[in-house]
Design goal:
Length: about 210
């Protein structure tokens, strides 16, 4: 439901399909088309021009057999990208074997994200780029504050690359507006401040060794 609404808000045309009429009614005002039908019925899918979509997300969490059959039908109909939600690694492996282009495990990914954030209080956000490499947003560690990027030598000393700095602009005490955050490209002589957020890229091992104070 969240995915369908966010895609629609981004201007993407969305067809929302479910066998439960209540769920269809919940999302019908947020997407282009919301229809009650059985996704394992190929003829019913064709009636909604399902063979013309750019991507299909199979998010049938409780009915694994239905999710498998829907994935097979989408593959047979030539859908260019098929994304499947899996509840276990075993299910994920089966989805991959029958042709899913991408498999997500929301509970597993949420747990990994929370563990990383709890173990690193400075962490703001992260994006997994590829196996073993991550883009991190983290608040400037105390040992980095007041130093220039040249002095820190992040690439040589920590084996990570600083991509951009997100910096809060100073405001008057009377201002009730939220702080303005400027995104800036780093220069060697820039000093890092307490409220700066650093966007860095590197291997997971190198990122794990960054200061966490």
């Amino acid at each position: 439901m969240t995915l369908a609404r966010n895609l629609a808000e981004s201007g993407v045309q969305v067809i929302a399909i479910d066998r439960d009429g209540k769920r269809v009614n919940e999302v019908k005002d947020d997407v282009d088309i919301a229809v009650r039908l059985n996704s394992t019925d190929q003829a019913a899918l064709l009636s909604q021009d399902f063979d013309k979509v750019d991507a299909c997300v199979v998010a049938i969490g409780e009915h694994f057999e239905s999710a498998l059959l829907t994935t097979v039908i989408a593959k047979q109909m030539g859908v260019p990208e098929i994304v499947c939600r899996a509840q276990s690694e075993f299910h994920a492996e089966i989805f991959r074997k029958i042709g899913a282009d991408r498999v997500i495990q929301p509970e597993h990914q949420a747990g990994a994200s929370l563990a990383r954030q709890l173990s690193n209080p400075q962490l703001v956000d992260f994006i997994q780029l590829a196996d073993g490499f991550t883009l991190l947003e983290l608040r400037t560690p105390k040992s980095f504050q007041g130093k220039t990027i040249r002095e820190l030598a992040l690439r040589n000393e920590h084996n990570v690359n600083l991509i951009v700095i997100r910096r809060e602009q100073p405001q008057t005490e009377e201002s009730e507006e939220p702080p303005v955050v400027e995104t800036m490209f780093p220069h060697p002589d820039d000093h890092l401040g307490e409220n700066d957020v650093l966007v860095v890229v590197g291997s997971d091992d190198a990122l794990a060794r960054l200061p966490r104070e």
